[in-house]
Amino acid sequence: MGFRDRPEYIEWRKAVLEHFGSTCVLCGHSGNIHIHHVLPVNTYPELVFEVTNGVPLCGNCHAEVSGNELAYVDRFIELQTSILGIETDETEAQNKLRKAAEEAPQDPKAVAEWLNATRDCSIAIEFFERNRESIKMTGDIAEVMTYIYSAAERHSDAIDLGELALILAKKEGGRAEDISHIGCCLERNIRALKGLSEAHLFMAALVEEYPKNGPLHTCLSQTLCEIAEVKRDHRHPDEPLPRACLEHALKAASLAPHDSTCLSWASFICLEFFMYKDALIYAKRQLSMAKDDEKKIDAMNNIANVYRRNELYGDAIGIYQQIVDMDPDDTLGAGAGAMADIAFCLYMQDRLSAAKAMAKRCLMFDPENKDALSTISYIEKTEKMDY
C-alpha cells in the first residue's frame, strides 16, 4: 500500500480540502488538485496528517513548488490565514518583525531578529540584497544569511557570507557553538561548489585553528571518510578507512561528551574499526542524553548495529523492534528501515518465514528498500536450494 493509499492520508486530504477549499491557493484553478505539505514531512514528520499543514495546489503549481518547498512556507501560511479570515499570532509576530526591519535596515538587532524568524528564504534574500548597503553587518546577520543562502543552494553566496561570519564571530568573542555551526555549514557549501578535496583542506585548517572544538573534529572525520569511500568505490574496494577518521571522531567525543552528533559519529566509526565495546559505550551515552524520538532512534540504531555486527541477532532484533514500536507507520522515516533490519536478523537465525513476512511489511511503507528486497532474494534462493 502506497503512502497516498493509506486511510490516514485519504482522510487528511479530504479534511484539507474541506478546510481550505478545492481550488489551487496560488492560481485559483480547480482541476488536477494535489495536496501539498506546507512544512516538509521529512523535517516535520509529526505534522504529516495535521490539517493546517496542507494546502490545495493544481498540478502545475505543485510542480513549480517541488524542490523549493521552504521558499514558499510563509506564502502558504499567509494564504491559509487569508482563506480562513484570521491571522495567527505567529504570522502577526513575524509581520511586526519584518516591518521593523524594513523601516530600520540600519538597526542590526531588528534585521537579525526578523531574519532569524522568517522561514521564507526567497523573501529574506530579497530583503537582504535590496538593503545590503544600509545593513550594518554583525556576526548574527552574517551567520543567519549563511544558513539562508545555503538552504537556497546559493553556495557561492553562502561561502562569502560564511567566511565573513567566521571573521566577525572571532572578533565578537568566538563562541565555540557559533564557530562549529558556521564552519560545518561552510564545509557543506564548499563541498557542493568546489568538491571534497577543497572541503577537506578548509576543515583541516579550521580544526588546526580551533583544536578543542569537538563538532569541527566530527565534521573533519566525516569528510575524510567520504574521501576514502570515493577512493574505495573507484580504485581500492578493500582499502580500510584512514586512521585519522577514528582519531578525529574520538577527539570529538572527548571534547564534546554531551554532543549527540559527536557521540553518534564516534559510535559509528568505532564500529567500522571493530572497536565494539567503545561503539556500545558511545551509543548508550548518546541514548541516555537523547531528548526527542529522532535522537533516541539514532542512538538505538547504533546500539542494535553493534549487536548485529557481533552476531547477537536476538539482542539486535529487540532494539530494532523498539524502533518499529516508536514509528510503526514510518512517519519518522525510521520504522521501515528497522523492519528491514529485523528481517535480515531473522534470516540469519534461519527463521525464513518470519523474515520474509517482516521484509514484506517493510516494503508496504518503502517499496524500494534495498535491504528488504535483498533479504527476500536471499530467502527465495535458500528456499529453492532446500527444495
Outline:
The protein is mostly helical and 387 residues long. Among the domains are: 3-84, no CATH class; 88-194, Serine Threonine Protein Phosphatase 5, Tetratricopeptide repeat; 312-387, Serine Threonine Protein Phosphatase 5, Tetratricopeptide repeat.
Q: What class would the helix/strand composition place it in?
A: mainly alpha
Major β-sheet profile: 2 strands, antiparallel
| CATH classification, class level of the domain at 88-194 | Mainly Alpha
Number of strands: 2
- The largest beta-sheet arranges its strands as 1-2
What do we call the CATH topology of the domain at 88-194?
Serine Threonine Protein Phosphatase 5, Tetratricopeptide repeat
Strand content: under 5%
Termini separation (Å)?
31 Å
Query: Judging by the overall fold, what is the CATH architecture of the domain at 88-194?
Result: Alpha Horseshoe
CATH level-four homologous superfamily name of the domain at 88-194: Tetratricopeptide repeat domain
How many helices?
Answer: 19
**Element-level helix/strand string:** HEEHHHHHHHHHHHHHHHHHH
Question: What sort of overall outline do the alpha carbons produce when their principal axes are compared?
Answer: flat
Helix content percent band: 55-70%
| Rg over alpha carbons | 24 Å
Rounded mean pLDDT score: 87
Which blocks of ≥5 consecutive residues have pLDDT under 50?
none
Detailed description of the structure:
With 387 residues, the chain is mostly helical. Among the domains are: 3-84, no CATH class; 88-194, Serine Threonine Protein Phosphatase 5, Tetratricopeptide repeat (Alpha Horseshoe); 312-387, Tetratricopeptide repeat domain (Serine Threonine Protein Phosphatase 5, Tetratricopeptide repeat, Alpha Horseshoe), CATH 1.25.40. 69% of the residues lie in helices and 3% in strands. The protein contains 19 helices and 2 strands. The protein has helices at residues 7-20, 59-65, 73-84, 89-103, 108-117, 121-130, 139-151, 155-171, 176-194, 196-209, 214-234, 243-255, 260-272, 276-289, 293-309, 313-326, 335-348, 352-365, 370-386, and strands at residues 33-37, 54-58. The chain has a two-stranded antiparallel sheet with strand order 1-2. Helix 4 (89-103) runs antiparallel to helix 5 (108-117) and helix 7 (139-151) packs parallel to helix 9.
